[in-house]
Specification:
The chain is mostly helical. It is 65% helix and 3% strand.
Length: 252
């Protein structure tokens, strides 16, 4: 039976804060250029960056902007500076892998099969449990938000519209858990998921192939059936994993 009461206030979804590279500042340019080079392997772990004056000239920025950019890269775990030695790229294990910029760069550069597996594994941990919680705790208004996102997926006429609606669907499900800890965890990887959804849909025969599984999740949440919601979401994640693995293999 549909719940029409609101047992707890709706927890608004938090969009990830704007990344530093979205800024048009000169040091934002430094962060973006060097960060992407490091992530794609153009500058490998252990390598020293060029001297400050040479790097500033190459990037066409002042030394002040370069230093500010280096502070940001250091905070992301990508580089470390030592007196009389210089600035060196750190091992990938030290990188802050859930940083919004690092996730975005990995997706821009086409995620590797290993990255796809790890992201799918993370989704498998978070999303089925979130769907089950949404089936238990969602309010009537939150159910409407999920239904609206599903309707937008049905109405999508191109991949961009589909991806936006798909992301809105998953965000609405997370919001319906009424668990701010789960919402915060999911929002960290939102930038990567947008790319994940788009590539998965592009690899499928038709970008709407996943619509029936989304419908099953919605129906289970509507009926307040946690186990059914969990199973449907798990099936959806596995289908996305398969599509992304096909995309990675095709690129290889």
């Amino acid at each position: 039976m549909t719940k029409r009461s609101a047992p707890s206030p709706r927890i608004p979804l938090r969009r990830p804060s704007a990344s530093i590279t979205s800024s048009r500042s000169l040091y934002g340019h430094v962060v973006h250029e060097l960060g992407r080079r490091i992530i794609e392997g153009g500058i490998k772990p252990g390598e020293l960056l060029p001297r400050e004056e040479l790097l500033a000239e190459e990037l066409r920025v002042s030394r002040t902007a370069l230093r500010e950019g280096m502070k940001v890269l250091s905070a992301k775990g990508l580089v470390e500076s030592r007196p009389k030695v210089g600035t060196r790229v750190r091992d990938a294990r030290a990188w802050h892998q859930l940083d919004a910029d690092i996730l975005a760069w990995r997706c821009e550069l086409m995620p590797t099969e290993d990255f796809v597996r790890k992201l799918a594994d993370m989704r498998e941990v978070i999303e089925p449990s979130a769907a089950a919680a949404a089936a238990k705790y969602r309010t009537y208004e939150q159910l409407q938000s999920i239904e609206q996102a599903y309707a937008a997926m049905e109405a999508a006429i191109d991949l961009d519209e589909w991806t936006d609606a798909d992301l809105a669907f998953h965000e609405a499900v997370l919001s319906a858990t009424n668990n701010e800890l789960m919402v915060s965890l999911f929002s960290v990887i939102e930038s990567a998921l947008a790319t994940f959804f788009a590539l998965s849909a592009r690899t499928a025969r038709n970008f709407k192939d996943a619509l029936p599984l989304h419908g099953e999740v919605l129906d289970a949440i509507r009926r307040s059936e946690p186990d059914a919601a969990r199973r449907a979401m798990l099936a959806m994640v596995e289908e996305s994993r398969t599509n992304m693995q096909k995309a990675s293999s095709a690129r290889g």
